[in-house]
Fold:
Amino acid sequence: MNQTIYTSPEYKRSRAAYMAQCTLEYFVSLLVTDAFLAKLLSSLGVGDAMVGIISSFISMAFVIQLISIFVVKSRISTKKLVITFDTISQVFFMFIYFVPFIPVSGTLKKTFVVLSILIAYAGKYLIVSIFYKWANSYVEPTKRASYSASKEMISLIAGIIFTIVSGLIIDKYESIGNLNGGFLLIAISMLIINVFNLISLSLIKKESKTSLDENNRPFSDVIKNTFGNKNFRNIIYATTLWDTSKFFTIGFMGTFKTKDLLISVFTIQIINMVANFFRLLVTKPFGRYSDKKSFAKGYELALFLAASAFLSNVFTTPKHWYLIIVYTIFYNVCLAGINQNTYNISYSYVDSAYITQAMAIKSSIGGICGFCASLLGGRLLNYVQSNGNRFMGIPIFGQQLLSLISFLLVVIAILFMHFVVAKQKVKIQ
Structure:
């Protein structure tokens, strides 16, 4: 493709709109994870282990991406497809915070929350790989990691302010005994966000007819160029190890912070703000490093930081609660590299014509393993808590034990990424 096309007004507008959409989507994701979701679920009477499992439904929703392998073959406009399912997803995320006001039993409320989370993530992940290929097609190939870094920096800066305000709202309403009032304000803010999100998606350039034709590949070719590609299979092994380690622990951290460490939502958001500041500092350098070295090398570096995060959490207790700051900083900083490279890495080893399918397959397998890990983590957490926060006679919080297992899995992922994936020949496309 002629490189000058990337400087055209349509391409510039599309990149700007994509950045805006990602920022707005980030706002919503902040409100349906970690302390915010934990606070909502706890207010509905959901137990700690179940909070973690529900928080990890995001991993199971990845499985829906397998359907995108067939959806991408349709003649439906990618733009219409993305707008439709993304809007459905955002509406159900918003509905989660309206559940406390529905005049039904507590059991039904919990059911509504679970169903809403599942539907929201299903709508999101049905089109995530399709959306990524479409929106990313307006970014110059040699600048993809740097563009991802800029996009993430904008989201982080705006997200820092957004979470502080949201945290203050929740803490304020909880202090006056009206937590549902805080949930209502969050729901209204999500409605406003969704309107701007829809506008941003509408401003991205519609895909070309050539792009639609390229998607119509025989299923046998898809299998040959994904599962039949040894380099791609190695990517799956490495990234699935990360997904498994992440979901083994991360979904249970919200209740660990608020219940065991007794940290307020506002304080948690301040810690997140500090962590995001450090993430902001390394985002651009991470992007330049990945563009220069390889997406695999960038991913490997991020895994080192993730290992440091889980290891620090192994030693986090109410007496040494401040280590949660160390954990949060390392974990957030590692995401600067993980998020930039998790999709981009497929471009290094898979033909561009099969990128959508490759991303869907990789994410689905990682999602299945991640959800299974969260179920196992939930059982282990229940076991430790039922034994008075002891494991094999050793005083320990369940989240500390889960973090230790996550640490060991990440170490294995680092070794595999370094000695196998990073040695593979990279495609420039």
Observations:
- The first helix runs from residue 9 to 31.
- The longest strand covers residues 390-391.
- The domain at 3-423 is CATH 1.20.1250.20 (Growth Hormone; Chain: A;).
- The mean pLDDT is 86.
